Amino acid sequence: MDKNNALTAFSALSQETRLDVFRLLVKAGETGMSAGDIGDTLGVRQNTMSANLAILARSGLIRSKREGRSIRYLADMDGMRGLLAFLMEDCCGGQPELCQPVINELACVC
Q1: CATH number of the domain bearing residue 9
Q2: CA–CA separation, 92 vs 79, rounded Å?
Q3: How many domains does the chain fold into?
Q4: DSSP letter string over 8-29?
């Protein structure tokens, strides 16, 4: 991930509803959620949710999957890994063992 993509991702996450959506989709895992279910869970109107989902999708942090007439949204784990890798690119001044506690904290045990 380059600096411009990272800035786009940070911009997308800098709004409360979008941050809540992203965290909800991370929690939902590979099953994802429909836009309606996301909106109902977070108490957000459909048109507002659509705009927020579009911003998150453009940022590379979520992806969508069509299922018949509906669309399921999922956290894009590659996008999230790219953002985290960008942040930690120059971590620990060439001493990777210093970064290991952070990496262990981020590792998914699911």
Answers
A1: 1.10.10.10
A2: 23
A3: 1
A4: HHHHHHTSHHHHHHHHHHHHHG
Q: What is the DSSP letter of 1?
A: -
Task: Answer with the residue of higher pLDDT: 89 or 52.
Answer: 52
Please give, one letter per residue, the 3-state secondary structure of 40-64. HHHCCCHHHHHHHHHHHHHHCCEEE
64 beta partners: 73
Residue 93: domain span: 3-106
pLDDT in tens, 2-51: 999 999 999 999 999 999 999 999 999 999 999 999 999 999 999 999 99
Please tell me whether the overall predicted TM-score, pTM, comes out greater than 0.70 for this model: yes
**Which amino acid is located at 25 in the chain?**
L
Residue 49 identity (one-letter amino acid): M
- Candidates 92, 91, 64; CA nearest to 76 is 64
Distance of alpha carbon 87 from alpha carbon 15, whole angstroms = 20
